[in-house]
Amino acid sequence: MKRRNILFILSALILLIVGGLTWGSFYMLNYSLRPDKNKETKEESLAYMFREYPYIKPWIDSLQEVGALRDTNIYSPANNVKLHAYYIKASRPTTHTAVIVHGYTDNAIRIMQIGYMYNHDLGFNILLPDLQYHGQSEGNAIQMGWKDRLDVLHWMQTAAHIYGDSIRMVVHGISMGAATTMMVSGEPQQNYVKCFVEDCGYTSVWEQFSKELKEQFNIPDFPLLYAASWLCQLKYGWSFQEASALDQIKHCHLPMLFIHGDADKYVPTYMVNKLFENKPAPKECWIVPNAEHAVSYKENKEAYTKRVKEFVSKYIF
């Protein structure tokens, strides 16, 4: 075979590999960061919540009747997009305040069961943000907690503006919201922030995406995950490697409660062990028997409420 033919074939193969890798990277990024299923309306989300948590319907209805379920907006300090949140004052004046962060493709309404726990059962003021590209917030893609951490810090300041600088605050997140909470915890905190609760959060975007790539598509990390991370850096300004709750919590010296189901396969239970080990004291951990992903409260409402109350009481009450 002539040398020119060999060079032609090699060049064609290289172009084919690069083209396939580029297509695969764009597909992975759109598949993971721009899914369609997070575009539920408020009414659709409420209908879902009333089916799954019927006891919150009278509470929500009563809040809406008196105009106590309120909206507020800010602009993201990360990329200046318009963001939305709900806030609900406690039935009696209090400094106790919870900022509650939802999970992947959910929204503020779809974590209202935790809002119910804090507001209805524990008597807290609450603020529930829609993260970027979720609910009523704008944005061009899901940020997997990394840019969201800056938004949540701004929401925490907004809660202090709404409820007063004398508040005593807990930040509580589930799933991606838990990873966001841990990423937030590694940043410098205001004096009113007293503790954090994370429920089934992942160690890092890289480790979570690596797991999903292997389980869903049977594809190794190299080269697709590396290329998609590089593309994410170009398009959205962050990489999978840097979006690490595991690294962030090393810098957190405020108390944190870790909650994780021992039957969680989506965010595997081994992740909470790594996270707990890397977090400086004070810290507590509750591994919930037989609980799969993000259902620890739903399946253990009284025990969950008791655990959270006991934990936050040490630092907020």
From TrEMBL:
Keywords tagged on the record: Hydrolase
UniProt keyword annotation of Hydrolase present: yes
Recorded superkingdom: Bacteria
GO annotation (BP), single: proteolysis
Keyword Hydrolase: yes
Domain Peptidase S9 prolyl oligopeptidase catalytic: 139-315
Pfam families the UniProt entry points to: Peptidase_S9 (PF00326)
Gene Ontology MF term list: serine-type peptidase activity
Protein name: Hydrolase
Organism of provenance: Bacteroides graminisolvens DSM 19988 = JCM 15093
